[in-house]
Amino acid sequence: MTVELFFQTVVNATYAASYMALIAVGFVLIFGVMGVVNFAHGELYMAGAYTVVALYAGVGLPFFVAVAAGLVFVGLLGLLMELALFRPLRDNPLGGLIASIGFLLILQTIAVLGFGVRMKNVPPSTQEKLVLMDGAVLTYQRLYVILAAVILLTALWFFLRKSKFGWALRACAQDREAAVLQGMSINQTARLAMFIGAALAGVAGALTAPLVSPTPFMGHSVIVTAFIIIIVGGLGSLEGAVLVAILYAFVHTFVTTLYDGTLANIVGLLLMLGVLIVKPTGLFGAKERA
Amino acid sequence: MPKTDTNTNFLGLLGFALLAVVLIALPHLLSFSQQEILVLLVINVLLVCSYRLLTLTGEWSLAHAVIMGVGAYSSALAAKQLSFPVPLAMLTGAGVAGFLAFLLSFPLFRMKGFYFLIASFAAGEVIRLTWKWSDLTFLFGGPKGIKRIPPFPDFLSIDFYEPVNYYYLCLIVVAISLLILYRIERSRIGLTFHAIHWQDKLAESVGVNTFRYRMLAFVVSAFFAGLAGALYAHYVGAVAPNRFSVEEMVYILIWAIVGGTATFYGPIIGVVTLTILNEVILRSLDVDEMRPMFYGAILIISILFLPNGLESLLPKIKGWFAARKEKRAMTEQLAE
C-alpha cells in the first residue's frame, strides 16, 4: 500500500465513519428510550436520500434547503412511527420490531412507486475539493457529511447533558418506570427521541445522496451496519456508538480497499459475533437491559 | 365421556380424509402457473412449520432462510459435483443444514432473546456472504449461484418435471415431515420446549439441560428447513444467494406472525392465507410492485389488532357460535 493510497483510505474512512455515526446514534437513541429495535432505520436513511432526489435533483431547490427538508420530513416520519406503531405496542418489544419491518416494506414500496427501482443519479452540489497532504483528495461533498456529523452529534451531546429535555430523555433510557414516577411524560420523551433519531438518519441519507446513487433498497446494508455498530458498542451507549462507528468504518474501508467489499462485510459480521459471544453487553455497554 | 371421544375422533378422521381428497384433487383444478405456485406453497408450509418448532423454545431466529439455503446449496452441490442420486442428495442437504445448526448452537445459545435474534442474523449473513464471495465462485458460483441443478429423476415412469407430479412428491415428503414435527411437539420433548420458553430458570432447577433442548429444537428445525430448501433447489433448478436474503426471512416471519405460533396449524393458516391473497387478489389487480406494501400493511394491522394471529380467530368464531346457540336455546325456553 502506497502512502498516497493509505492517506486516501484514511480520508474515505473518516467520511464513512461520519455518516455511520449519524445513523447509529439515532438507532441507539431510539432503542435506549423506547426499547424498540427500529428495523426501518435504514429506510429512514433512504427516505432522506430520496427527499434530496425529489427536491434538489428534481425540483431544483438549493442543496442545503433540500437537506433541511429531508431532516424535517424524516423526523416527521419518525413521529408518525411513534404515534401509529410504537405507542400502541409499548408493552410488546418484539411487536415494535415486527411493526417496523412492516413500515420498512411500505417505505420501500413508496420509493419504488415514486421513483422506480433503478439507481438515481444526483448531481454533486459542488465540484470543489480539498487536496490534503500526499495527494489525498477530500471532495467538499464528503466534507459536508463530516462537518454535519461533528456539528450535529456535538449539539446532541450538549442537548442531552445540559437541557431539561435531555435529562428527561436520559432518565427514560435508564429506567422508564422511575422516570414516569418523577413526573416525566413518556409520550413526550418518546416523541422527542423518535424525531431526533429519525432526523439524524434522514440527514445522513440526504447528505450522502449525491455520493451513493440512491436506490429503494439502499437501507439494507445500512441496517446491517447499524446493528454491528450498536452491538459492538453496547446497546444504549451513545458514546460507544460513535467510537465503534469510527472503528468499524476504518476496518471496513481498509479491508474493502485491500481485498474486497464482500470480505469486509464478513469481517464486520464476525467482529459482531465475536463481541456477542465474548461480551454480549458490548465494549462500552454498562449493563444488560432486561 | 367415551361417547364424545369417539365422536371427535371420527370427526377428526373425516376431516383428515376430506383434507386429503382436497389436496389430491387440488392441482387438477388449477392452471399450470397456479400448479407451480402450489408446489412452492407446499414447500413453504414445511419451511414455516419447521420455523415454529424453534419458536416453541421462545427463540426467534433470523437465520432460517439462510439455513433453508444451506439445504438447497448442499443438495445441489451433492447432486451436481459429487453426482449423488437426487433423493440421497436431498437428505444430505437436510443433514448438512442440521449439522450446521448443531455447530452454530454453541456460540448462539450463549445468548437469549434480542441478542440471539441479532446473532443468528449475523451468522446467517456470514454464511450467505460466503456464497457470494468471489474467491469461492468455483464452488458456490458467486452472486449468480448454482444453475442447472439435476432435477428429480423419473420413477416408475412418473415424470417429476411436471409440477403436478412434483407437487405429489412434495406433499408426501411434507406430510411425513409435519407428522414428525407434530409428534415431537406432543412428546415429552415438546413439553420441555414449552417449559424452557415460559420458565427456563425453573426448568433448569429441576434438572433440564436447557442448552441441549434448545440445540435439539434448532437442529431439528434446521433439518426440515434444509429439506424444504432441497425440495426447492431440485424443483427450480437454480439457487442464488439473494433467494435466501433477509427479505425472504421477513416473509417467513410474516407468515408465522400473521398465522400465529401458539398452535401447530397457525403458521400453516398464515402461509396459505397470504399466498392465496397474494396470488389470487394481488395478481388479479396486477400490482406486482405494490406487493411488499400489502405485506407490510398486513403485518402492521395483524400485530396491532390481531397480535395472536389468525389462529386466535377460530376459538372466537367457535365462541360466537356457541353464544348464539345458547341464546337461541334461551329464547326457545322463554317461548315455552
Name the descriptors:
heterodimer, A: 290 residues, mainly alpha, two-stranded antiparallel sheet, 11 helices, 2 strands, globular, B: 336 residues, 2 domains, 14 helices, transport (chain A), transmembrane helix (chain A)
Topology (elements, then pairings):
The complex is a heterodimer of chains A (290) and B (336).
Chain A lengths: L2 H32 L6 H19 L3 H24 L6 H23 L13 E3 L5 E3 H23 L1 H11 L1 H6 L4 H27 L6 H15 L4 H21 L2 H18 L12
Helix pairs in contact in A: 1-5, 1-6, 1-8, 1-9, 1-10, 2-3, 2-4, 2-8, 2-9, 3-8, 5-6, 5-8, 6-8, 9-10, 9-11, 10-11
Chain B lengths: L1 H24 L6 H24 L8 H17 L5 H23 L4 H20 L4 H4 L22 H24 L1 H11 L1 H6 L4 H27 L9 H14 L6 H20 L5 H15 L7 H23 L1
Q: List the total number of helices of chain B.
A: 14
So what's the oligomer here?
Answer: heterodimer
- Sheet/helix structural class of chain A: mainly alpha
Low-confidence stretches of chain A: none
